[in-house]
Amino acid sequence: MKSITSLPVLLIGLVLACGSSEEESPMEGMSAQEHAMMMAGGTQGETDSTGATVRQSVHLTAAQEQALGVVYTMVRRGTMTRTIRTVGVVAAAEPNITDITPKVDGFVEELLVDYTGQKVRRGQPLLRLYSPTLVAAQEELLTALRLASRVGRGAGEAWRNAQSMLDAARRRLAYFDITPEQIEQVETTGRATKTLTLVAPFTGVVLEKHVVEGQRVTPGMQLYRLADLSTVWVEGEVFEQDLQYIRIGAQAHIEVAAYPGEHLMGAVSFVYPVVDVASRTNRVRVTVPNPGGRLKPGMFSTMFFDTRVAEDVIVVPFEAVIVTGERNLVFVRDEDGMLQPREVVLGARADREVQILSGLTEGETIVASANFLIDAESRLGTTGGSMPGMQYGGDTTGLQQQPAEQQHD
Asked: Rounded CA gap, 284 and 88, in Å?
């Protein structure tokens, strides 16, 4: 059997060898891909005037649809939403940070808040400060107070001058951050105290402490840095192309590893005016209420922005679109069950959906999955061929049931 079949092959080889010496072979100059297509009996497919491959309509039986895993969906009109996800860092809100600094020279007689991270409440004493300047200011207050008490209202100008001196002495102590309660105590007792107390201006925590007991302090020296953490900032980076969807006042929710499964709500309070040149990202700030101080500055978080991309637009799943690089195609199923390739123009994309600007109308049925296989069959249809298994209605058992002799030949 092998010797009989090899004789025609030898004869054909001799004819080709002789013919090659007289004229050029028709396959000479072909690429490997063109040669393979010619030997297979097909072409690369017809092309239109733009050079794009022409696609024909495809008809699938129920068995073929099942074999390819074809799923259909309806073209709908609706609102497109998108969730922008990024990583953020919790920070203390800058307007809620205050430095405690003295206004006079002095010495720390007693340190009442003595470690970083300590919680303080509004009006709580921080330290007691001895300052000759403060002692002199108290003495001036007591002198003005005695003078004002001796001059009656009937004295006219003298009484007004005495009252002006008393008010000036009170203001001087107030300018040194001495509280009205301490000033009242000096006036009530009629005696100057050696030390006066600096107190916390609000309820918060000590972020930094730069003072120890017995230390000499000067005006403007930073003693403490306090922060009110009842409200915190969460700042993250979003990509440049997503900035159009981030709006001031938009709601965002935050997740932190310390509280898995919990969603903490906040609002976009600021979008930084400068884009980072290297990363092409922009910083976005979300203000989050923090009752109980559960969010700690320095925590990492995941930020989610639920945004509306477009409203009342034609929407299809992004998987339903075949992006060729030159055009975008969708296979539309007509009333006869034929799958027609149709060119569409894409708009905004949101998660797994894409807006269709033109090419489709609401209510049409399109292929939502396996469209690449259908596209391959559509292109093969222009060459007169088809995908393996398509001619069997999706059942490839016919290939496997051929006799062994036929398969060997």
From this structure: 9
3-class DSSP state for residue 191?
A: coil
Per-residue pLDDT of the chain (409 residues; tens, 9 = 90+): 444 444 333 333 433 344 444 444 444 444 443 443 333 333 344 455 555 556 778 888 888 888 888 888 999 998 888 889 999 999 999 999 999 999 999 999 999 999 999 999 999 999 999 999 999 999 999 999 998 888 876 667 888 888 899 999 999 999 998 889 999 999 999 999 999 899 999 999 999 999 999 999 999 999 999 999 999 999 999 999 889 889 999 999 999 999 998 889 999 999 999 999 999 999 999 999 998 889 999 999 999 998 888 888 898 988 889 888 788 888 898 888 888 888 999 988 887 888 899 989 899 999 888 767 776 766 665 444 455 555 544 444 433 334 444 444 4
Distance CA 298, CA 300 (A): 6
Find how far residue 14's CA is from the centre of its chain.
Answer: 71
Contacts of 304 (CB under 8 A, 6+ apart): 83, 84, 85, 252, 253, 254, 255
389 conformational bin, left if phi > 0, alpha if psi -120 to 50, beta if neither? left
| Cα–Cα dist 380/391, whole Å | 12
The answer to whether the CB of 375 falls within 8 A of the CB of 329 is yes
The secondary structure of 253-319 as a DSSP string is EEEETTSTT--EEEEEEEEEEEEETTTTEEEEEEEEE-GGG-S-TT-EEEEEEEEEEEEEEEEEEGG
Domains of the chain: 47-79+311-394 (2.40.420.20), 83-94+229-309 (2.40.30.170), 102-227 (2.40.50.100)
Sheet with 204-209, side-by-side order of all strands: 97-100, 224-227, 204-209, 119-120
Q: What is the DSSP letter of 54?
A: P
Largest Cα–Cα distance in the chain?
A: 146
State both tokens at 128.
């007691």
Question: In the structure encoding, which two tokens stand for residue 70, read together?
Answer: 């074809």
Both tokens of 130, joined, read: 């001895």
